[in-house]
Amino acid sequence: MFVSFFPQPRVFFPSAILWTVLAMLFWYGYADNLIGSSEPGIVGVALFWSARSLWFDLYFALCVALFAAGWMWYSPHPWAMWSILGSALILFTSYFQVQVSVAINSWYGPFYDLVQAALSKSAPVTLDRFYGELSTFAGIALIAVLVGVLTRFFVSHYIFRWRTAMNGFYVANWTRLRTIEGASQRVQEDTMRFATTMEGLGVNLISAVLTLLAFLPVLVRLSSNITELPLIGSIPYPLVFAAIVWSVFGTGALALIGIRLPGIEFFNQRVEAAYRKELVLGEDDPARADPPSLSVLFNSIRRNYFRLYLNFMYFNVGRIVYLQTDVIFPYILLAPTIVAGKITLGSMNQILNAFTQVRTSFQYLVNSWSTIVELISIYQRLRAFEAKIGGGPLPSIETRTEPAAL
Q1: How many helices (H) and strands (E) are present in the chain, helices listed first?
Q2: Which of 120, 144, 188, 375 is 20 to 30 A distant from 127 in Cα terms?
Q3: Where are the alpha helices (DSSP H) in 121-260?
Q4: pLDDT score recorded for residue 393
Q5: Looking at the DSSP assignment, which residues form a beta bridge with residue 229?
Q6: Cβ atoms within 10 A of the Cβ of 40, count?
Q7: CA separation for the pair 137, 344 (Å, rounded)
Q8: 205 pLDDT exceeds 60?
Q9: d(CA 360, CA 358)
Q10: What are phi and psi of 144, to 5 degrees?
């Protein structure tokens, strides 16, 4: 899964994390200070080509070039250009999308203060000024759309290259892998699903971490007027504390409710593979795929799907209740401050957006749990290939029978 695409994965990924940490420490400890202030007054597309942004882009490119050159020299790999430089480009676009969110959050303040001034008639507001604020947002959105479309195009090619690498690796060892149940499906389908799911989860995780780094200081600065929380009272950094506690609670609760789902999804793929295999054999051999055999195989599919539906019902009840409560949760926290009139409409929207960004980042597992279930199932199926190629025993789940009861 990884050896086919990345050079020496057991060393590569720790080295990538270490290099990233060192690069960030050098940036925040030294390089960022070379250009002075962070230019907090910039609102709009000018933020993307400010001196600080361009300096960071150059610094990022230099760090990636040094890291990639070192690995290409130390451990040449046929897919290194895609796995190293491609991953770095995806990482950069994730950072850029976070910067788009920061730019929009900066726009919220003056725009909603302008709306409040217009509605309350506390200050003169002209149409030109109002449309000017909307055009500022349109500029940010246009760049975000352009970068987003180009990123998705590149990511599609990146995923297929990863699938190609896995496909070539498994096909080269096909004589040893062909005896594993559903081997053809695992090579043809699971390789693509693994690459797609892994890329999606990886990008979301990176975005969550970058969003935290970008919005935690913003939330701390904007929530200076929030002095207390309902039922709890006055505590330091109340909104940050509330975001962490609420997100950890949701993550733990949903992980507990959905703990059986990965195993059920694995069995689901296994019975589907057995049914599909019998149908394929029946295309060439009239003695195969007879109605009694297909009926037995399909009953296994039916039983497993009903088990999956039941467990997902428990999971979705908890997930939907949590996410619906999540919509009003920040308003509950801000209720005393709003009622006391301590913040303006613009400040409130900036706080709500920053709080949502931070809270959503902490809720990475909550929002990704269904996808993680699918990834675990795919990983378990491809892990049998890895064990077979390495000469080790098959994972225990390969010999385990699915439970008969729901």
Answers
A1: 13, 0
A2: 144
A3: 127-172, 174-177, 183-185, 191-222, 238-257
A4: 67
A5: 233
A6: 9
A7: 20
A8: yes
A9: 6
A10: -60, -40
Q: Rounded to 5 degrees, what are φ and ψ at 19?
A: -60, -40
Q: Are 336 and 228 in contact (CB under 8 A)?
A: yes
Residue with tokens 């990475």: 364
Q: Which residue has the higher pLDDT, 226 or 5?
A: 5
Per-residue pLDDT tens for 262-301?
A: 777 777 777 877 777 778 778 777 788 788 888 888 888 8
Give the per-residue pLDDT at 52.
79
What is the token pair recorded at 300?
């296994």
Measured CA to CA, the distance from residue 337 to residue 335 in angstroms comes to: 6
How large is the average pLDDT for residues 156-161?
A: 87
Amino acid at 313: M
Non-local CB neighbours of 277 within 8 Å, separated by 6+ positions: 182, 184
Radius of gyration of the chain (CA): 26
Phi/psi region, residue 335 (left: phi>0; alpha: psi -120 to 50; beta: rest), is: alpha
Beta-ladder partners of 233: 229
> What pLDDT shows up at residue 392?
67
- Write the burial class of residue 323 (CB in 10 Å: 0-12 exposed, 13-18 middle, 19+ buried): middle
State the DSSP H helix or E strand holding residue 307, giving kind and residue range, or none if neither: helix 291-339
Q: Which residue has the higher pLDDT, 68 or 339?
A: 68
Is residue 182 within 8 A of residue 378, CB to CB? The reply is no
pLDDT score, position 401 = 60
pLDDT tens readout for residues 114-155: 888 888 888 788 888 889 888 988 888 898 889 889 988 988
Q: What is the pLDDT at residue 44?
A: 73
Cα-Cα-Cα-Cα dihedral sign, residues 194, 196, 202, 204: negative
Our measurement of the distance from residue 4's CA atom to the centroid of its chain's CA atoms, rounded to an integer in Å, reads 23
Distance CA 139, CA 149 (A): 16
Is residue 204 helix, strand or coil? helix
Distance between CA atoms of 369 and 274, rounded to whole angstroms?
27
The SS3 call for residue 26 is helix
Provide mean pLDDT across the span 190-213: 79
Residues in the chain, overall count? 406
- For every residue of 269-300, DSSP letters joined together read HHHHHHHHHHHHHHHH-TTSS-HHHHHHHHHH
Terminal CA-to-CA distance of the chain, rounded, Å?
Answer: 32
Per-residue pLDDT at 213 exceeds 60:
yes
Residue with tokens 């610094």: 59
